[in-house]
Fold this sequence. Notes:
The protein contains twelve helices and twelve strands. The chain has two domains: 3-133, 2-Layer Sandwich (Enolase-like, domain 1), CATH 3.30.390; 139-371, Enolase-like C-terminal domain (TIM Barrel), CATH 3.20.20.120. The protein is globular and about 60 Å long. The strands form two sheets. Strands 4, 5, 6, 7, 8, 9, 10, 11 and 12 form a nine-stranded mixed β-sheet that branches. A three-stranded antiparallel β-sheet has the order 1-2-3, with helices on both faces. It is α/β, with parallel strands linked by helices. Keywords: Magnesium, Metal-binding.
Amino acid sequence: MKVSRVEAFAVRAAQEGQYWGAQAWSAASDASQARRRFIYSDRVETVLVRLETSDGVVGWGESKAPVGAVVTAKLVEELLTPIVLGTRVDEITLTWDRMYTGMRVRGHDAGFWLEALSGVDIALWDAWARTLNQPLHTLIGGRYRESVPVYASGIPAGLGVQAAHERALQYRERGFRATKVAIGNDPRQDVAVVEAVRDVFDEVYADAAGTYDLPQALAVGRELTQLRVGFFEMPIAPEYVDGYATLAAKLDIPLALDSLPNRYRAMEFLKRGALHVLQPDVCRAGGITELMRIAQLADSFGAQATPHVSIGSAVHFAASLQCAAAIPNFTVMEHWAGVNPLGEPIAADHLDPVQGVRVVPHAPGLGITVDETAVRHLSH
């Protein structure tokens, strides 16, 4: 029952159209906007981790790598694998500490290291649950719910009022009951687009990806409050904790943040009363082990927790669903509504939401069957 093999696959696939995040916050050519633009790939990229035990059980994990997937895969292969090989599959927290501590002296408590670690951690949980022939959520607290409500992400405000309204109608026709709008470029247009989407959905959320300054976030936040938006995600740069505390004190709308790489960073916000909805990403924030710690920490402060699910493979979606099922202080989860070339193509039993709900599977482990041949074909 020890880890006998670990492999990392940097996979990529062409996507249909441009990812909504790239449409909203892609790299800038204008230097004045350089602080408000981020790097995106023109394909769907990620790193899948295959872990095998001495008993022949295989577990799968995913390290979030929308860009630079080869870098993340190398971290898994060259630095994390030597730590994990030979460890017991039923000592996941101990193995997590060994992996995390490996780069603590260098200050690597976020970014590529935590993302690489996340994939190994998820694979360990999948393998352990499959060894016990149990669905993964039973090992991390049990099933609080049989199904998980999800909202469709996302609708870029840059589409304009009419196009955004039409996109919202399309999502509603697909059965979604809620959606999220990507804002952060033009406060006036952003609010107008959210209002147009709000005409279609009773539940609407807004994500600025940290692109506003504090005065802009205050002004937009007040408008979103009037529109009864569910939460205001990453209104300003995530490094500005005191700014979040200021916003939380002056706005009535709940503040949310997905850029939480570990429980220590989450604690900084919670102690200041600066967040109401914590959105750790299971493939970025230290895997299942650390995500559940963050969720428990949030619960201790009366805050909600929900896995962040943007772009990624079926493994990402499955791991997030397992966590959502086991989080007591959960309300709703994100779901990338685009066509995912790393969804069913690598796991035929990866199911899309029906009427805005994802059913929690009873199958062992992550609840999906990864097609190893497909993964190897897509890797580079």
